[in-house]
């Protein structure tokens, strides 16, 4: 085991000792009192199965078979979630075939940052994660269930579903993916058209044609943004079945994996039934058995470290510097940006998936995918194998991949599903490499520190010659003002650092600012040194321009960005981990300027309904959550020293 992995894990365990113990005690008590289907009063139980057919009513009344909750994010507007339309019926049939019962317990909202990019609706995006968590908790609150099947894919949906599931941590929970769409227009060609459009060299029709050819069918978008980072993390956390994340919708293998998830959930629910009423110590010990995987036990400190390592090695979404922190805290685990920074220094960069390269997730999957990534990281001592998963104990189970085997009737007969060892070597080293021959010796995400605060930067898509920028600031309080300045040629023929402030969680919900990427890319391609510094987000699609994002403390809460003015010299140094500011003492002594949206500027498109979220949301480095966090000590060493 790599010594840094051990050290980071040990300090997370020590830091989390109090809150983790309290969390485990709480879910052990929940196992003692629920699920309470067998103890519901007659009227309560009758309401719980009133809509069921007679056979299901009889089974639900008997209390013998486990009953699984299906929580779905289905809608038919978003490509990633449209495949879930048929899942409830398929899952119910498979659950019944495995000896259980299932009910659709509830739905959660699923919004798309791609649709809302640059629009007012984007200001609700980050908040939607916690709404989803609350919606999932409401779905499970009926106490009718012995386990759960979570249907979700995209940006805030999967983290929200997991946070909600962890509030019912005594229940075994399996996440069921839908898979990515097949490959369309290559991402490099799409990005080129976007940049040409930003320069006025392509028409809107040409741009729409390119976007439509890229995002063209059912399934997740194929670039390696937050949605596909979610899928990789759920698998490495042990909450998907092995090899199931990146199988395309509508295929026979996809359907077989969905059936297998249902059957596995029944087995886990049966195995966990004997845990009710046990003392905490015995409960935790017995919950770690192969057919007992309460989600609160699966998501432990080692599993969280594994997720961090996989994110870093794959060059995953910057959004997970918040989501992983929030998911960990929902399980009583205190993860910090310093932990991510220290891991990033020793975890090699093993993947080149757009925007970090030209390949998409289908190419990554074909090259060996998650199975090979897990294998090589285990061999390098960079993952904990001794974890619990929904497939059984040991992360080494996730080096395997599923395949269909023809049935006894021969070709054309009913196929069965089995898992075999995945490829021992990458099948395309331009996309996926072993830990012994990485693309870079360190991870694709880094943490910056300095007088402007703490920030995150995604370096895997940024060429080495662009990773250090020192230039005068140009300051904007709204992304629209930056785009107007670009269109008016006010940013031509100079180096600069764009400071886009009042974009944090408490200011306006921390929207993604990905719409700025084409304009910044144009200026960089003209030979200028450009970078962006913001308390907003740039998402998993962060591109070739260095972007210091999630700056904390944010401007709206008195952060240093509120004191920066045009012309102040700012340094973004991804090599040394520095977010620098010349003459910092003078700048920080100034009064703040600018402000977050107020009054009618924070109204319409549903935004006024989320005013309570603005008032209570936590900082980005604590997960940007509205939920109360466990008290945690300050980082043991100043962040700049970790970097």
Automatic annotation (TrEMBL):
Residues 65-395 form the Dihydroxy-acid/6-phosphogluconate dehydratase N-terminal domain. It comes from Nocardioides kribbensis. Its EC number is 4.2.1.12. Pathway: Carbohydrate metabolism; Entner-Doudoroff pathway. Transmembrane segments: none annotated. One of its GO terms (molecular function) is phosphogluconate dehydratase activity. It is an enzyme of class 4 (lyase). [4Fe-4S] cluster binds at residues 154, 221. Keywords: 2Fe-2S, 4Fe-4S, Amino-acid biosynthesis, Branched-chain amino acid biosynthesis, Carbohydrate metabolism, Gluconate utilization, Iron, Iron-sulfur, Lyase, Metal-binding. InterPro entries: 6-phosphgluc_deHydtase, Dihydro-acid_dehy_C, DiOHA_6PGluconate_deHydtase_CS, ILV_EDD_C, ILV_EDD_N, IlvD/EDD_N. It comes from the Bacteria. This is Phosphogluconate dehydratase. Gene3D superfamilies: IlvD/EDD C-terminal domain-like.
């Amino acid at each position: 085991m790599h010594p840094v992995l051990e050290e980071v894990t040990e300090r997370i365990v020590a830091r989390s000792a109090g809150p983790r113990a309290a969390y485990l005690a709480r879910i052990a008590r929940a196992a003692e009192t629920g699920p309470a289907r067998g103890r519901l009063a007659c009227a309560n139980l009758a309401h719980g199965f009133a809509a069921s057919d007679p056979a299901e009513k009889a089974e639900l009344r008997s209390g013998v078979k486990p009953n699984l909750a299906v929580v779905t994010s289905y809608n038919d507007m978003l490509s990633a979630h449209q495949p879930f339309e048929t899942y409830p019926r398929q899952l119910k049939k498979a659950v019944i075939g495995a000896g259980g019962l299932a009910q659709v317990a509830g739905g959660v909202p699923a919004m798309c940052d791609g649709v809302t990019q640059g629009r007012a609706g984007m200001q609700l995006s980050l908040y939607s994660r916690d709404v989803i968590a609350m919606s999932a908790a409401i779905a499970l609150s009926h106490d009718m269930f012995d386990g759960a099947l979570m249907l979700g894919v995209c940006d805030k949906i999967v983290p929200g579903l997991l946070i909600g599931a962890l509030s019912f941590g005594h229940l075994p929970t399996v996440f069921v993916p839908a898979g990515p769409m097949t490959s369309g227009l290559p991402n490099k060609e799409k990005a080129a058209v976007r940049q040409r459009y930003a320069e006025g060299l392509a028409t809107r029709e040409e741009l729409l044609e390119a976007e439509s050819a890229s995002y063209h069918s059912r399934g997740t978008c194929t670039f390696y943004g937050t949605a596909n980072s979610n899928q990789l993390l759920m698998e490495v956390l042990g909450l998907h079945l092995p090899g199931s994340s990146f199988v395309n919708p509508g295929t026979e293998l996809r359907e077989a994996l969905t059936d297998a998830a249902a059957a596995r959930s029944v087995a886990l629910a049966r195995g966990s039934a004997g845990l009710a009423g046990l003392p905490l110590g015995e409960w935790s010990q017995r919950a770690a058995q192969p057919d007992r995987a309460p989600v609160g036990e699966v998501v432990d400190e080692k599993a969280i470290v594994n997720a961090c390592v996989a994110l870093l090695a794959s060059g995953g979404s910057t959004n997970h510097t918040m989501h992983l922190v929030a998911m960990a805290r929902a399980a009583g685990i205190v993860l910090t940006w310093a932990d991510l920074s220290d891991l990033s220094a020793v975890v090699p960069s093993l993947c080149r998936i757009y925007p970090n390269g030209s390949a998409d997730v289908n190419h990554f999957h074909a090259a060996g995918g998650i199975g090979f990534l897990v294998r090589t990281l285990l061999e390098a001592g960079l993952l904990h194998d001794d974890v619990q998963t929904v497939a059984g104990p040991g992360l080494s189970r996730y080096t395997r991949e599923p395949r269909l085997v023809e049935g006894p009737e021969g070709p054309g007969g009913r196929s069965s599903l089995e898992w075999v060892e995945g490829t021992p070597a990458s099948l395309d080293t331009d996309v996926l490499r072993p830990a012994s021959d990485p693309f870079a010796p360190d991870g694709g995400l880094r943490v910056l520190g300095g007088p402007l605060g703490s920030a995150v930067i995604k370096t895997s898509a940024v060429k080495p010659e662009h990773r250090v920028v020192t230039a005068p600031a140009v300051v904007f309080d709204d992304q629209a003002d930056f785009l107007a300045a670009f269109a008016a040629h006010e940013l031509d023929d100079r180096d600069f650092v764009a400071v886009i402030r009042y974009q944090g969680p408490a200011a306006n919900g921390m929207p993604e600012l990905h719409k700025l990427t084409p304009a910044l890319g144009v200026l960089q391609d003209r030979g200028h040194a450009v970078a962006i510094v913001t308390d907003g987000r740039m998402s998993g699609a962060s591109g070739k321009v260095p972007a210091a994002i999630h700056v904390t403390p944010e401007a709206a809460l008195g952060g240093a960005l509120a004191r920066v003015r045009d012309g102040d010299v700012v340094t973004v140094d991804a090599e040394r981990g520095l977010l620098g500011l010349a003459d910092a003492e003078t700048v920080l002594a100034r009064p703040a300027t600018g402000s977050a949206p107020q009054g009618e500027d924070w109204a319409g498109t549903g935004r006024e309904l989320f005013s309570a979220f603005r008032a209570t949301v936590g900082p980005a480095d604590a997960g940007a959550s509205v939920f109360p966090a466990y008290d945690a000590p300050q980082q043991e060493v100043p962040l700049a020293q970790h970097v």
